[in-house]
């Protein structure tokens, strides 16, 4: 494919988020090379919804949230997975696809995942021996290995309710935990981790956008604080927010989350308008096309996800337990 055709292919998708044909021609040599290497190496590229549009619409085969993408990758026949996201998401993909090579283009952390270690979980267990430990999927494999069950922002209530224990230690997202408290009969103990992206929103921002755009529906991620959640029209996971926008008859939305989700709405639902403000995740946005190219051509040691067998076995069991509890009616 020549560069002109590649630039036009990119422009078709990226023009919806404000890219010009000149912008597209600048990245066309790189997207061409990445897409060629991907085929040669029998690889698939996954992009979290918080990645930049050139990654989502230039090279990714699938766009979504961390757990959903890891499931998709585990079901695909391929040799290699390049996961454009933060480190723990690469680990989740590796847990579900141990036979595949999993690469993360850039070694990026996450304020939530890094707020807690496996040693912290052991200490919590000692302090509360009768409590069950539910970990949010935004944790390292080592933390998952020390927990009883994992959960996502979509199924957190269901998983907590299905636990046999009355006392539950929920790690590491304190804000998601506080949002959940009013919706469960369990005694919830929290860890003080937060997502720096969602923690930054305030109720005042929501009020201001409502005043300026009275017709807009306001949607927030459940990683936001309870005083923000109580002001919005809908709270949920990234996928639930996207589904809401797609299915809604309304056409103006504020998305109280990372800016990448707004880019997805603009690119995939051009009839819907995104208003107000959003926050950037410095970790997610730390990945560039050049990092994907390096991962495919000459992966650095730290770009290849490896998980010690003893940790992988226990962390996978924590994910499997989530799947089992999810099935309970
Ligand atoms: S958006 Fe929040 S939870 Fe997601 S990677 Fe960034 S800091 Fe972590």
Explain what this protein looks like in three dimensions.
By secondary structure, the protein is an alpha/beta fold. It has three domains: 3-110 and 285-298, NadA-like (Rossmann fold, 3-Layer(aba) Sandwich); 113-195 and 308-327, 3-Layer(aba) Sandwich (Rossmann fold); 203-280, NadA-like (Rossmann fold), CATH 3.40.50. It contains 15 helices and twelve strands. The strands form three sheets. A four-stranded parallel sheet has the order 2-1-3-4, with helices on both faces. A four-stranded parallel sheet has the order 6-5-7-8, sandwiched between helices. α5 (87-96) links the parallel β3 and β4. α1 packs across α2. Iron/sulfur cluster is lined by residues 50, 86, 110-112, 138, 195-197, 258, 281, 283-284.
Give the arrangement of secondary structure elements:
Blueprint: H1 3-14, H2 21-40, E1 43-48, H3 53-58, E2 62-64, H4 66-75, E3 80-84, H5 87-96, E4 101-103, H6 118-127, E5 132-136, H7 141-145, E6 149-151, H8 156-162, E7 167-171, H9 174-181, E8 187-190, H10 203-212, E9 217-221, H11 226-229, E10 234-236, H12 238-247, E11 252-256, H13 259-268, E12 273-274, H14 289-297, H15 309-327
Parallel strand pairs: 1-2, 1-3, 3-4, 5-6, 5-7, 7-8, 9-10, 9-11, 11-12
Helix pairs in contact: 1-2, 2-14, 4-5
Iron/sulfur cluster binds at residues 50, 86, 110-112, 138, 195-197, 258, 281, 283-284.
